[in-house]
From TrEMBL:
Assembly behavior: Self-interacts. Interacts with FtsZ.
Keyword Cell wall biogenesis/degradation attributed: no
Pfam families: FtsA, FtsA_C, SHS2_FTSA
Name the record gives this protein: Cell division protein FtsA
Bias kind Polar residues: ranges: 402-413
Domain SHS2 residue range list: 7-194
Keywords: Cell cycle, Cell division, Cell membrane, Membrane
Organism: Lactiplantibacillus plajomi
Subcellular location: Cell membrane
Composition skew (Basic and acidic residues), residue ranges: 427-438
Record gene name: ftsA
Length: 449
């Protein structure tokens, strides 16, 4: 199926709101518009003032519309992993059609059966992802449509989150005059962007260091297995600089961005720059190394907390290592500092799109890629959650700004390449040859299943 079309990603961050418009043609994603606005009404990744957040979203969307020459009507939005719970779900139905051939309606019905969960009143289902289908006892099936059977089962992964966070996100987006195409859990989307196939299969860790919080996510067997959120991020680094150097928050942010190093060993002790100090008429000279020591102290504290949680589940033994993302990941020397703290291979993911070569754009790009790669079966399963009966019908993210400037129509994404059961077994066989891999994989299967 052709998955060309226009996609709009929305990243509602603590310090900035980003909107990216991309056109997908023959598998190639081309960014055609970007909007970025300073956040308002957010605290630690969560919307706390719907009106202020909606106004900031509107401003970012207008910027993206002007650059892309389109009118944006729908967005795919990322939500933080705060208090996310990951559970297994399972549904089973009898195939309804007299011919016993499985169709879209059967897939939707079995997904609905899998969604029958007893949830606390303060929680809501965010997403459900089919892991496999079972037809009359034959498992490992990714797409059962067209097959003949009497009994259809679906084994999937259910993600639930706090109703307050989800409601506020939806309300702010709708108040900004937009429709929500899909709400995607940020770490789940990031895995499709920053990790390659092998890293998703054998296991990797994504650490997203944003302005208001730091999120660690463990990806294994192409699934999101674990998340941890530390309520510290780039804003804490800025506040530390402001307090220690007795300068304003605005100056502290500029110092961090222009002169900051995450690893004090890389900063020069003889390189100095002026700092406007509150209560003094003349600036004070501060060395790069002194500033780096302030930044390193806070980052070391954040990384140490994350490491403690990852050690509890032995995630640092996974062969894929760590990928850093988020705006703070752009600070020079952060890779070296993280490697020292975590004791494993660390790299920073930077998008290769022109004008977006900064890790702060990762999430907005990630939600676009995630939605574009969503298989048709996954869309049908999703429709059981959203109640959208148009699961297999093209949906438009944008409309032309004028009659003379017609935007490409949104086509439904084609099915993403999924490993077959035989390929999965071959991957496991390759893993058996690696020292200690059986122990790691066996642990995760026992821990999460």
């Amino acid at each position: 199926m052709d998955n060309s079309g226009i996609y709009v990603g929305l990243d509602i961050g603590t310090t900035s709101i980003k909107v990216i418009v991309a056109e997908r043609v023959k598998g190639q994603m081309n960014v055609i518009g970007v909007g970025s606005e300073r956040s308002n009404g957010l605290s630690r990744g969560v919307i706390v003032d719907i009106d202020k957040a909606a106004a900031a979203i509107q401003s970012a969307v207008r910027q993206a519309e002007e650059k892309a020459s389109i009118e944006i009507t729908k967005v795919v939005a990322g939500v933080p992993a705060n208090l996310i719970k990951i559970e297994r779900c399972r549904g089973m139905i009898a195939v309804a059609d007299e011919s016993k051939e499985i169709n879209n309606e059967d897939v939707k019905n079995v997904a609905t059966a899998a969604l029958v969960q007893s949830l606390p009143p303060e929680r809501e289902v965010l997403d459900v992802i089919p892991d496999e289908f079972v037809v009359d006892g034959f498992d490992g099936i990714k797409d059962p449509r067209g097959m003949v059977g009497v009994r259809l089962e679906m084994h999937g992964t259910l993600f639930t989150g706090p109703k307050t966070i989800i409601h506020n996100t939806r309300k702010a987006i709708e108040k900004a005059g937009l429709q929500i195409e899909q709400i995607v859990i940020a770490p789940l989307a990031l895995s499709s962007l920053v990790l390659n196939d092998g890293e998703q299969d054998f296991g990797s860790i994504i650490i997203d260091i944003g302005g208001g919080q730091t999120t660690a996510a463990v990806i294994h067997d192409h699934q999101l297995k674990y998340t941890y959120v530390d309520q510290e991020g780039g804003q804490y680094i800025t506040k530390d600089i402001s307090v220690v150097l007795n300068t304003s928050i605005e100056n502290a942010e500029k110092l961090k961005r222009d002169y900051g190093y995450a690893d004090a060993q890389q900063a020069a002790d003889d390189e100095e720059f002026p700092v406007d100090v509150v209560g003094q008429s003349t600036p004070t000279q501060i060395s790069e190394q002194y500033l780096a020591e302030i930044i390193e102290a806070r980052l070391d504290q954040i990384f140490s907390k994350v490491k403690q949680r990852l050690d509890e589940i032995r995630a640092l033994e996974l062969p894929g290592g760590i990928v850093l993302t988020g705006g703070v990941a752009a600070i020079p020397g952060i890779t070296e500092l993280a490697s020292q703290v975590f004791g494993t291979r660390v790299r920073v993911f930077i998008p290769n799109q022109m004008g977006l070569r900064h890790p702060s754009f990762d999430e907005a790009l990630a939600v676009i890629k995630y939605q574009a790669a969503l298989s048709e079966v996954a869309q049908i399963v999703e429709s059981a959650l959203t109640g959208d009966t148009r699961a297999s019908v093209p949906r438009d993210f944008a409309e032309p700004a004028s009659v003379n400037q017609a935007a490409p129509s949104q086509s439904r994404p084609s099915e993403a390449a999924e490993p077959t059961k035989q390929q999965s077994e071959q991957a496991e066989d390759r893993g058996d040859k690696k020292s200690g891999f059986d122990r790691i994989k066996g642990f995760f299967n026992h821990f999460f299943d």
